[in-house]
């Protein structure tokens, strides 16, 4: 049975609560509206905004988590997780402690017109649990501090309402996004 | 001592400074994968599908690693979108060490169609590639192509034909 909370947030509200609880964490954000919504709430060199390659957010996050010590928070969607379910298996098997995968689950492809995904009938939190993730389900209050206190790898299942916020496209180009992110990750100081 | 074909690939990876590799196995890469696994200086992440491997390696690159993927050419078809809309878009380097099946000497008919398509797919994606004919050439090519990859900020491919092994 799909876990539906009484109080479901809009996705942009969920992103605001989650990133509001973060301090030094690196964020890899799924393409399309999730990245646009994050960018409109707050921009940071700690954010890697994906502009293409649907499905790769969790894999990019895994590579980052395995290669350095800072904690990595991946903001992913149900359609993207389903497109790369094997990547979730690899992440669970590699099991980095500094990885948190957040599933913003609206059970549809919101960016392309809200066509249903199979997350409507398959509980992706239970799938992640069976792989070995420490799963937390935010079915009522979204207090993300609770996820930050857990042992990793964590899979945070956050049901959200379908739909997108009315936010503009990101006015950074791909090179700007990755260059400042790399500088942030690799600890380059003043320039 | 004559350098064996697999040892040359591994030595090339070491010479090139590759310290992070993802892989999907091919029977021709078996010995290379064993060497990589036995080396604590290189992080090896086996993946379920090549596309995903490119994603993992992209994250490692952002953290300063020098990355490679060990794969069969069949996996190139699984990876076209990630190579275009992640690697090309963000100018991310990676050294693709590819067992090129379906080339001369192939015993499996099913490998031939993708074997024939491989070079054209790389050309369309503007990925520089080389087909070394000897272990010495393979070792040198991996080093030179890795340098090119990092300098140009794009993937490169070293194709190891059936006859190479």
TrEMBL record, chain B:
Domain annotation Thiamine pyrophosphate enzyme N-terminal TPP-binding: ranges: 6-105
Keyword entries, A-Z: Coenzyme M biosynthesis, Decarboxylase, Lyase, Pyruvate
Assembly mode: Heterododecamer composed of 6 subunits alpha and 6 subunits beta.
Recorded metabolic or biological pathway in which this protein acts: Cofactor biosynthesis; coenzyme M biosynthesis; sulfoacetaldehyde from phosphoenolpyruvate and sulfite: step 4/4
Domain of life per record: Archaea
InterPro entries, per the entry: Sulfopyruvate_deCO2ase_alpha, THDP-binding, Thiamin_PyroP_enz_TPP-bd_dom, TPP_dependent_decarboxylase
Gene Ontology biological process terms from the UniProt entry: coenzyme M biosynthetic process
Organism, as annotated: Methanothermobacter thermautotrophicus (Methanobacterium thermoformicicum)
Gene that produces this protein: comD
GO molecular function, one term: thiamine pyrophosphate binding
Catalytic reaction annotation: 3-sulfopyruvate + H(+) = sulfoacetaldehyde + CO2
Gene3D superfamilies assigned: 3.40.50.970
Known role: Involved in the biosynthesis of the coenzyme M (2-mercaptoethanesulfonic acid). Catalyzes the decarboxylation of sulfopyruvate to sulfoacetaldehyde.
Protein known as: sulfopyruvate decarboxylase
């Amino acid at each position: 049975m799909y876990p539906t909370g009484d109080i479901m947030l809009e996705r942009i509200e969920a992103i605001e609560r989650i990133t509001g609880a973060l301090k030094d964490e690196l964020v890899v954000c799924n393409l399309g509206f999730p990245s646009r919504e994050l960018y409109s709430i707050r921009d940071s060199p700690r954010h890697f905004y994906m502009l293409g390659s649907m499905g790769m957010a969790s894999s990019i996050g895994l590579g980052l988590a395995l290669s350095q010590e800072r904690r990595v928070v991946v903001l992913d969607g149900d359609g993207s997780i389903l497109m790369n379910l094997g990547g979730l298996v690899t992440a669970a098997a590699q099991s980095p402690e500094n990885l948190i995968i957040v599933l913003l689950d609206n059970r549809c492809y919101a960016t392309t017109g809200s066509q249903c995904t199979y997350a409507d009938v398959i509980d992706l939190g239970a799938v992640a649990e069976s792989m070995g993730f420490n799963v937390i389900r935010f079915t009522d209050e979204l207090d993300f501090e609770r996820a930050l206190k857990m042992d990793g790898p964590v899979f945070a299942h956050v049901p959200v309402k379908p739909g997108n916020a009315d936010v503009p496209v990101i006015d950074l180009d791909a090179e700007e996004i990755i260059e400042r992110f790399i500088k942030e990750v690799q600890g380059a100081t003043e320039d | 001592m004559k350098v064996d074909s697999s040892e040359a690939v591994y030595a090339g990876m070491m010479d090139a400074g590759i310290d992070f590799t993802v892989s999907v196995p091919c029977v021709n890469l078996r010995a290379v994968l064993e060497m990589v696994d036995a080396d604590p200086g290189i992080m090896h992440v086996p993946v379920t599908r090549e596309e995903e491997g490119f994603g993992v390696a992209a994250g490692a690159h952002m953290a300063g690693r020098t990355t490679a993927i060990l794969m069969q050419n069949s996996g190139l078809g699984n990876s076209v979108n990630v190579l275009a809309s992640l690697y090309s878009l963000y100018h991310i380097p990676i050294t693709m060490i590819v067992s090129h099946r379906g080339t001369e000497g192939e015993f499996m008919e099913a490998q031939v169609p993708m074997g024939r398509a491989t070079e054209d797919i790389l050309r369309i994606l503007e990925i520089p590639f080389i087909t070394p004919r000897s272990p010495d050439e393979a070792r040198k090519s991996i080093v030179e192509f890795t340098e090119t990859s990092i300098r140009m900020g794009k993937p490169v491919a070293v194709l190891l034909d059936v006859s190479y092994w």
